[in-house]
Amino acid sequence: MNRYFIWLAYKGTNYCGWQRQPNGVSVQQCVEEVFETVLRHPVPLTGAGRTDAGVHARRMAAHFDVPTALDDTERLAGKLNRMLPKDIAIERIVPVRADAHARFEAVSRRYQYIVSEKKDPFDYEWVCRMSLRSMDFAAMNEAAKTLYDYTDFTSFSKLHTDVKTNNCRIDEARWEKDGARWVFTIQADRFLRNMVRAIVGTMFEVGRGKRSVDDFRRLIEAKDRCQAGTSAPPEGLALTGIDYPDDLFIHA
Question: Is 0.90 surpassed by the pTM of this model?
């Protein structure tokens, strides 16, 4: 079998998330169905992770296997793009080692969460709209810094998941102003289900003065999801990057 990575982007508004679900249309399902139409056989995709319903991806990765090497991956990507809905786009398809795994060999992942109180008809599906007048972003950045001190993020994990560990290594976490927007960037070796939205939702409470930075630290140490805040809405969140070791890729 010949293994390939596919890089793609999608607007998650109309989907139940990346992964196939019995009760809705997923991004994975759409791409797999188009693959099967073009290549005339099933092409199961293994994604680098999951995104929740309504969450976007500016750069997602998945791997797939085919029995015969692909002659022209650029042409294949073009065919797929012509058949896919307008809110899913294939960036490129690249050959990788036969044992390369899109999920397990990712060394880091990056997400951004964007908030703004400005109404903009061109980005309303990408940005979480809320009042920021009383939001203390300096306190939120202090809370963000505490994330570096911990590895167990049970307090920000969706309950009853099948993961073996709730440990993650946070490499970057900060809020920055970008015009009328505030952007939260977070990078880690891995993320738990619903983790970023739970972190952001709890930071909103810090920003509004409902929790102190010390409270934020204590709830991480409690390892109890019930003590964290409500998850932030999905529309402000996007997966923006995934990094892999260079030796996974077969260079021409």
Answer: yes
